[in-house]
Amino acid sequence: MKQSEEHTSSIKHLAHDLNNIFTRILNSVELLKRKIVSNEEIVLLLNNIEAGTYLASEMIEETLVANENKTSPTRRININSIIQDVIRTFVFQQKEKTNFHLDLDPQLYLVKGKYSDFYRVFINLIINAVEAIKAKGDISVKTKSRTDHKGAIEITISDNGRGIDHEALPYIFNENFSTKQGSSISGVGLFIVKNIIEKYGGSINVTSKVGIGTKFRIILNAAATKAKRKKRHAKKILIAEDEGVLRELLAELLRSYNYKVTVASNGAEVLDALNSVLPDLMIIDQKMPVMDGIECIEQIKKREENIPIILAAGSPTDISDRTSFLKIDKILNKPYNFEELLSIIRELIG
After folding, report:
1. Is residue 123 domain-shared with residue 170, that is, in the same domain?
2. Beta carbons of 329 and 349 less than 8 angstroms apart
3. 185 lies in the same domain as 307
4. Which domain holds residue 105?
5. What is the pLDDT of residues 268-301, one digit of tens each?
6. Number of structural domains in the chain
7. Are 334 and 314 in contact (CB under 8 A)?
8. Which of 82, 137, 299, 343 is the most buried (most CB within 10 A)?
9. Over the Cα atoms of the chain, what is R_g?
10. Residues whose CB is less than 8 angstroms from the CB of residue 306 and which lie 6 or more positions away in sequence, other chains included
11. pTM of the shown model
12. Continuous H helices in the chain
């Protein structure tokens, strides 16, 4: 029994360390995107690194939560990034057959979910669109935030392929349904697509005409946000993170958005800093030497300082009853990218 507990503990430590590395990669990618924003080819490669990092981290999370009967956490995701990564998979191998057209809303609302789930949705839909084109054709993907329906995004995927028979259209989301002769499992993709979208409270519908093409339209709920507060002065943020490279990456990114940043490498340094600086918000890592994040937050609460706190947890299994008792404003599971963190900061302090 003791050996099993030691093994589980070792896995948790490994997951924590890997998620720190993944977070560092994601934020390095974000910083590079900001520095080379005009080079589309390099940005696409960076999106590929970002996608691979998310997928690898979720594989680790699935293993951890399965061992402890917990639910795998969701995160705030930019659907544009997933679509760009999926399209890049097909661009080179389909360049003689298919033209891809992207019209992606740069201000697209984030959605909450698992990266691997949404990746699965769009890889299935794009595969179907590619297969629908016999000789040469076009596939268009458009995203937009819904102005007529606050808190939702809309994605349309259109092709000018062979289309779907009118009689078959009502059944395409049924399990095992297929329009392809000789295949009994081809239709499983759309069945799974619909289930994933509905799991997150969204919807999908399809219109098609034989010889003209097919269009899928998806509606997804945006990640819930509070109304932004009006900016009256440059907001101050205190970052407590023992991983030096990650700490400096976050500080540089936040400063580029005109936040004033103070850094600390452990909980004790946070308490010392609070004697001279009163931040508008704190980002505190859960596992740190000298004094960890939970103990640090407990001490801050005793001071009765009304400062919003984001707790950065190394893995989903780090969340405990103590965390709930402290009524922390937001818990952000690693790995996270800067866009996800920034959306939470803006929600809390503007």
Report:
1. yes
2. no
3. no
4. 74-224
5. 999 999 999 899 999 999 989 999 999 999 999 8
6. 2
7. yes
8. 82
9. 23
10. none
11. 0.73
12. 2-35, 40-68, 79-91, 115-132, 188-199, 244-255, 267-273, 293-302, 321-325, 338-349
